[in-house]
Design brief:
It is elongated and about 65 Å long. The chain contains 3 helices and 30 strands. The protein has 2 domains: 43-221, Pectate Lyase C-like (3 Solenoid); 238-414, Pectate Lyase C-like (3 Solenoid). The longest helix has 16 residues, at 5-20. 8% of the residues lie in helices and 46% in strands. The structure holds 2-acetamido-2-deoxy-beta-D-glucopyranose (5 copies).
């Protein structure tokens, strides 16, 4: 659904205010063998949660062990490692706050399971705040256990709904790397990147059913220098969504589907949103998604902002409903009050070598606003064909200006 990052920022601040008054210690729980963190720390600075009272049986709450490992690792200088060995570790919300004294890495060999007791969450499941140089790696899974709680999501009925916990959240983190892991069945978004600079997501798998509610793959907002590469995402909402205030993003070698595609936006929903610029999406495949590459902004945008220097290249569409779409009249749940009042400028957008098939006749839809037309749109070798036999391939361009080189002539509507 791509909530604006402003909504997430407000939520984040509310949580900070609430928790400031809720400083009571976590209930003390028994642990068979309580070893000090110092003992669990090896020469390389390694904190193994199974040696800190955590249990990989999938049932015992290992939150305390994880938090103990975090507090110790974050409080030490130099390279520190938190190890989640093979096994299933059930944990509640993990508030991993920095700044840390050294550089922390989390080695995920086993799996973390997010508790389904929603009362335990203030906002997100694994929330990393103000931590620089963090590395999360391994072949393990972050399992949100969404199927047990998705029925509590009422966001399709109520726009300002209570949102379920996002799985992995990076707030104000510089130079973070997430690699190798799988994010499975998040309760809400799988990953949310907010006000970070320098984030790399590499060789990651994100998986949830195509009909799961608001399970966006990777959302980002107010961030810069983000790389997503070698990653496979199949979810119930946007595979990747790039929110306001984001600059310098490279998405390469990503396969998306099922899902709602690779989106920029939604833009303009809230006041004071910042520009989106320098976005490159290259060498990606979209399979049976509702959208391919999309830019969406609210019809009655509350912010004046610009989305520019957006480049899509070598994108393979496989049975995609709306392969190329700019929608400046976006208005889910009919909440817009003014028609055609967009304040969002979309310019300098290139679609180069976009090939494959569309499941609807309109392979290209550039629906820009009358007030602020899209400018500098380039279509170079765009060849996406309608798969069906009852109609022909077509393109719709409203208020879009630019040029076409090569490609299917049916799509040359600019
Ligand atoms: C997380 O922990 C930090 C410091 O330990 C605290 O200031 C903050 O309020 C906590 N946030 C949440 C969401 O619990
Ligand atoms: C960023 O993280 C990488 C990988 O952990 C590290 O090698 C590099 O030194 C970090 N860069 C900065 C500027 O801290
Ligand atoms: C993205 O790719 C471009 C062109 O290859 C490069 O100049 C830029 O530094 C890259 N940005 C990031 C965040 O990696
Ligand atoms: C066009 O993109 C496809 C992948 O979608 C790639 O296989 C092909 O080599 C590209 N063609 C050119 C001319 O770059
Ligand atoms: C072909 O598709 C267009 C656009 O979706 C639609 O308006 C039109 O009615 C279709 N024509 C036929 C013959 O189905």
């Amino acid at each position: 659904m791509a909530l604006s990052s402003n909504a997430l920022r407000i939520l984040f601040l509310v949580v900070l205010v609430c928790t400031a008054h809720a400083g009571k210690p976590a209930p003390k729980e028994k642990s068979e063998k309580k070893e000090g963190a110092a003992e669990a720390s090896g020469p390389g600075g390694s904190f193994d949660i199974s040696k800190l009272g955590g249990s990989g049986d999938g049932k015992t709450d290992s939150t305390k062990a994880f938090m103990e490992a975090w507090t110790s690792a974050c409080g030490k200088e130099g390279a520190q490692k938190i190890l989640i060995p093979k096994g299933d570790y059930l944990v509640g919300p993990l508030n991993l706050s920095g700044p840390c004294k050294g550089d922390v890495s989390i080695q995920l060999d086993g799996n973390l399971l997010g508790t389904t007791d929603l009362a335990q969450y203030k906002a997100n499941w694994i929330e990393i705040i103000k931590v620089d140089n963090l590395v999360i790696s391994g072949a393990g899974k972050l399992d949100g256990q969404g199927p047990k709680v998705w029925e509590n999501n009422k966001c399709n009925k109520k726009y300002d709904c209570k949102i379920l916990p996002n799985s992995l959240v990076l707030d104000f983190c510089n130079n973070a790397t997430v690699t190798g892991i799988t994010l499975l069945n998040a309760k809400f978004f799988h990953m949310n990147i907010f006000q970070c600079k320098g984030v790399t997501v590499k060789d990651v798998t994100v998986t949830a059913p195509g009909d799961s509610p608001n399970t966006d793959g990777i959302h980002m907002g107010d961030s810069s220098d983000v790389t997503i590469t070698g990653t496979t995402i199949g979810v119930g909402d946007d595979c990747i969504s790039i929110g306001p205030g984001t600059t310098g993003v490279n998405v390469t070698d990503v396969t998306c589907g099922p899902g709602h595609g690779i989106s920029i936006g939604s833009l303009g929903r809230y006041k004071d949103e910042k520009d989106v610029t320098d976005i490159n999406v290259k060498d990606c495949t979209l399979k049976k998604t509702t959208n391919g590459v999309r830019i969406k902004s609210y019809e009655d945008a509350a912010s004046v902002l610009t989305a520019s220097k957006i480049h899509y290249e070598n994108i393979q569409m496989d049975d995609v409903a709306n392969p190329i779409i700019i929608d400046m009249n976006y208005c889910p749940n009919k909440i817009c009050t003014a028609k055609g009042a967009s304040k969002v400028t979309v310019k300098d957008v290139t679609f180069k070598n976009i090939t494959g098939t569309s499941s609807t006749p309109e392979a290209v839809s550039l629906l820009c606003s009358e007030k602020i037309p899209c400018t500098g749109v380039t279509m170079d070798s765009v060849k996406v064909e309608y798969k069906g036999t009852n109609n022909k391939t077509m393109a719709v361009c409203n208020n879009a200006k630019g040029s076409v080189t090569g490609g299917l002539k049916e799509l040359a509507c600019l």
